[in-house]
């Protein structure tokens, strides 16, 4: 791999998102287009909760390794966005309101007892990736947020249009993410553009984004196989 300019590197990152981001996954298309029943939407929300709940833990592992107060202040904001600054606030609490609105028992959701095995393995692999890889790779893995406003707008508009068991209050998790995700991705992209200075570092950055896209894609693969094709594994949520 030859050394890319920052603009070329950014273009390659955006190509990865265009090809691999999970808005292209068949399960997302079914969710957005109203092709799922309530039980299948419940399964999606239940499994996605584990990802949402682990995001602040993932960010905390990176926060502990950041070398400057400036970087730590920036990354700490992500943890506050998800965990909130007091009980009942933040993205994780809003996701629980979504699962509440879908009729799932909150204790059951928080227990994570009904997760698909692939969900658990994929999310934990992401936490371990951020904990163990370089700071540059860890930050680059967050760049799926470059593409999240598109999937959020599709998801919210589609679900509100097609499902009578979904309301604007149920979907309130997503509204702050329309501003938080671009803010966070702007910072991460600027960091990667500045610090990926060798072909090896640029390859690492591109691989990190590919890995994160694979995490999100594999979670939807598992949902499709279990709840659309009907192969629910032992111990997983049964509608």
UniProtKB/TrEMBL annotation:
Primary enzyme class: oxidoreductase
Highest rank taxon of the organism: Bacteria
Boundaries of every Thiaminase-2/PQQC domain copy: 11-221
An example Gene Ontology biological process: pyrroloquinoline quinone biosynthetic process
Keywords, in A-Z order: Oxidoreductase, PQQ biosynthesis
Catalytic activity: 6-(2-amino-2-carboxyethyl)-7,8-dioxo-1,2,3,4,7,8-hexahydroquinoline-2,4-dicarboxylate + 3 O2 = pyrroloquinoline quinone + 2 H2O2 + 2 H2O + H(+)
Pathway: Cofactor biosynthesis; pyrroloquinoline quinone biosynthesis
Listed EC numbers: 1.3.3.11
Listed GO MF terms: pyrroloquinoline-quinone synthase activity
Family the UniProt entry places it in: Belongs to the PqqC family.
Reported function: Ring cyclization and eight-electron oxidation of 3a-(2-amino-2-carboxyethyl)-4,5-dioxo-4,5,6,7,8,9-hexahydroquinoline-7,9-dicarboxylic-acid to PQQ.
Name of the molecule in the record: Pyrroloquinoline-quinone synthase
Organism: Gluconobacter wancherniae NBRC 103581
């Amino acid at each position: 791999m030859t050394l890319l300019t920052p603009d070329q590197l950014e273009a390659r990152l955006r190509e990865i998102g265009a090809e691999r981001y999970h808005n292209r996954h068949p399960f997302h298309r079914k969710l957005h287009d109203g092709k799922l029943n309530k039980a299948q939407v419940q399964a999606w929300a239940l499994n996605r909760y584990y990802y949402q709940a682990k995001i602040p833990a993932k960010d905390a592992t990176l926060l502990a390794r950041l070398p400057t107060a400036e970087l730590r202040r920036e990354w700490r904001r992500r943890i506050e966005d998800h965990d909130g600054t007091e009980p009942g606030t933040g993205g994780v609490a809003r996701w629980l309101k979504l699962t509440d609105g879908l009729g799932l028992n909150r204790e059951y959701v928080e227990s994570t007892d009904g997760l698909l095995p692939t969900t658990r393995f994929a999310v934990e692999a992401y936490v371990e990736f951020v904990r163990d890889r370089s700071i540059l790779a860890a930050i680059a893995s967050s760049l799926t947020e470059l593409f999240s406003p598109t999937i959020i707008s599709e998801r919210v508009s589609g679900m509100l249009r097609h499902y009578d068991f979904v309301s604007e209050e149920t979907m309130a998790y997503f509204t702050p993410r329309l501003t938080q995700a671009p803010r966070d991705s702007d910072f991460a992209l600027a960091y990667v553009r500045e610090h990926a200075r060798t072909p090896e570092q640029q390859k690492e950055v591109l691989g990190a984004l590919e890995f994160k896209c694979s995490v999100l894609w594999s979670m939807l693969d598992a949902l499709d196989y279990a709840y659309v094709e009907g192969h629910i594994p032992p111990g997983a949520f049964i509608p």
